[in-house]
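Known limitations

Structure tokens in this collection are predictions and should be treated as such. Users comparing against experimental data should check residue numbering before alignment. To illustrate the layout, the record for Phosphoesterase is reproduced below. The input appears on top and the generated tokens appear beneath it.
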Amino acid sequence: MRLVITADTHVPKRARDLPPALWTAVEAADVVVHAGDWVDEALLAAMTARSRRLIGVYGNNDGPPLRARLPEVARVELAGLRLAVVHETGPRQRREERCAARFPDTDLLVFGHSHIPWDTVAPGGLRLLNPGSPTDRRAQPHATYLTAEISAGRLTGVRLHRLPPR
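Generated tokens:
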């Protein structure tokens, strides 16, 4: 199962649309995970139409229309892997311990908010991934998103994709 993981797209405030490379990845993926800060319902509609399966949550920049359509936390099982998605996890200090306590029956936690790519493992084995942002790199050297694969309950092939400058 092929995943595309993104967050903090901020369309149309930070970009008119997603980068073409990300749209290509979305269309090729089995599952697309979006960890919030869509900003506009039009992107949710476009991503829903262009993906086979979409799992998403709302973020702090998403208003009432998106909050009415998306959960704060999403939990699913994909090919035996227990996945949770949330926008915010709090400060980076002690993030792994805090998230392991909040998501005890989870194998993979995808989060956003910081626009900073993150890939760590908490005590007990919870993997934490943040794809950064494909449209608003802030102080990061590149705009980014992630791809990964799931097979027999295991996450493999996690890859951070750097997008060309706009």
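For this record: The first helix runs from residue 20 to 28. The beta strands are 2-6, 31-34, 54-56, 73-78, 81-86, 108-110, 118-121, 127-130, 143-151, 154-163. Please report discrepancies through the issue tracker.
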